[in-house]
Amino acid sequence: MAQRRPLKTVADASRDLISELPVEVMDRILECLPTRDAARTAQLSRHWNNVWLQHGRLAFDWEFLLTVQECQDDYGRALMNIINNILFSRAWPVKKFTLQISCADPKPRQYDVDRWCRFLSTNGVEEQNISLYKYLEPKYQLPFCLLSCSIIKQLIVQGPFIDFPVNACDIFSNVTSLAFLHVEFKHSVDGIASSISIPKLEKLAFEHCIGISEFEISPPKLAILSVIGSMYGLVEWTRWLAPHLKTIKSLWLCGSSLSCMDASTFPIAINLQVMKLYDLNFGCWKQLAFVMQLLTKCPNLCELHVMVNKGWEDDDKKAASRLLEDPDGCLAIQELKIQMLNTIQIESFNGSAFEMFFMKLLLSKFPALERVVIMKRWDMNASKVRKIQRKLECFPRVSPNAQIVCPDNYYEPMHKDWLDTHGFRLIHPY
Prior knowledge:
It is a single chain. This protein is α/β, with parallel strands linked by helices. It contains 14 helices and 15 strands. The protein has a 13-stranded parallel sheet with strand order 1-2-3-4-6-8-9-10-11-12-13-14-15. 35% of the residues are buried.
């Protein structure tokens, strides 16, 4: 008779099983934890301590700062000490680093920021998000070591000003993604600034920036360009924008800057496939005229996304009604020759006369149009949505395949995730 084998049991019930996980798995666990909790794992065992010291993703964000504020009496000194201790104890490179200081937090000195950035730039940082509240005084300057760092691939800067030395070279040499929010660009020395070559740059975003024209660049691989928010020096900015239209595939613009621009001077945007217009004021005739001008420069456009500015209503309904009756007599749009546009999406649509006029123009001009998505304003009821859809379906459509869709549910505005859409994964601080 065969002997029964005894059941296998764990000899020690207190055995630490997770410490025997592969280092890669343990590091992945730390990536899923806030920095404060990840640091606490160092107390679990020697194995976890080693993994923590090698962990290359540090986020001193608002969640982290809040926990420090709740636990420390001398918040300012404790915060600087904690950042220093965690950062300078790294045994391996810090590949991802986030620093977000708001107006309520203790201000690090420019010396502290310089020291942190200098350490990161020589220790393998590839992605960096540095956010210093824009109204902090004195204003911070982005350390030059980040501009000249040959390792960084993605950089998000919020608040500090950037001072470019004239004829500076080897700036952002390996960067593929750049985002600037509330940043002022300057030149430290008088003279003629030469164009900065950024050979690998693919994504570039601005929001509420000053002096963009000082950022003279020649990025041959630039594919996505976003310029959102109030712009200063629009004449210079228009001159800056024009040459980049030749290469980019996706363009985001803000309605507030359109009324002061002249698209007739722009080159043909031969590669542009996606255009997104944020905060477009349909009651502003100059903005509408610019959009129609710009469309004439985009022969290969495939997608058009518009978010309506909700802060206005029709002032002259009779004038808007006349536009619907004779659209070709009001705008020179006969030159529209976009054969590839297949998708139009309008957000926060209210069904005003100017909005309906705009839709009538678009439906009558694009032969490849397949899908028109009208996203209602948050306060619009279902009955009004159906009424608007019936009106839109009565407009002549040059494309036999064009379908008009009006979802009942409310969508989040596209501007809330514009950086995330472009791969920046940013939590907006302002």
